[in-house]
Write a structure and sequence with these properties.
This protein is of the alpha+beta class. Helices cover 48% and strands 17% of the residues. The protein starts with a helix and ends with a helix.
Amino acid sequence: MKRIGAILCLSMMLIFMSASVCFAGQGDLAIKDQYPKDGATGTAVENASIKIWFNQDVRPKSKDIRKANKSEIKLVDEKGKAVPIYVAYSPDEEGLMMVLSSNDAKIEGDTEYTLTIGAGFQASNGDTLAKGDKVSFTTLNQSQATTVNMVMMGVMMVGMIFFSSRSMKKQQEKERAEKGKRDTVNPYKEAKRTGKSVEEIVERDQKAKEKEAAAAAKRKAKQQGKSGNSGKDKEQAADKKRVAGPRPISAAGGTYKAPKKKSTAKNQQNKNQNSSRPKNQTGKQRNTKNKNNKSRKK
């Protein structure tokens, strides 16, 4: 009986071990992330690659496993046409697989592609996917993107040129205003353009320069006067008080009255003598008096 029991125990252990070996790895492999995502648009065409991240190491240990895994991966376009692919595994990042188009295949722009990974895809330890994976994405319309980029670049260039020229012009005007200088005038070119003589153009330019120099000097003197008298003007303005108008001294309670000067006949005569035009004197009398004064001086 003991021998029979031992045989039964060994048989059961062998059965369980075989079952674990048979079912080990079924459904343990899974996809963690992928790029591009399902339904993505605007995927780059140049150097286009589909990246799949698994939760285990998927680097094949033999050529047979590599070939079997490649047969589980398919890439088709929107018309269902298969695209030749190349499957690569990252030596540095465990669990990363990349699917690229072969050299003789070209990824077209503005086209929908679908990548399918079958459930028979194996990991390095033999685990397989619990279920297959499917991802669809649309590539970028390259011609449209190029046109948009060219338009944006043109707008940027025009804007840069406009603002640069505007800033330069303002700077030049500011410098001319500060220095009181004008642009040099070529009299010969100006004479040819306007039809006037060279001398006339030179004279007009010289007058304009003198006028600008005078205006600049006036502005400078005005600014210096303002800066020098601003404090003094404020002090004087603070001491001054405005009144409505002149008022008599009696309004303040004063009783003083200025005496009036009396005019006498003698004062009036002296006044007439000292005046260059005495009152009631004719022109003949004035001429006679002037002659007498001249003869006395001689």
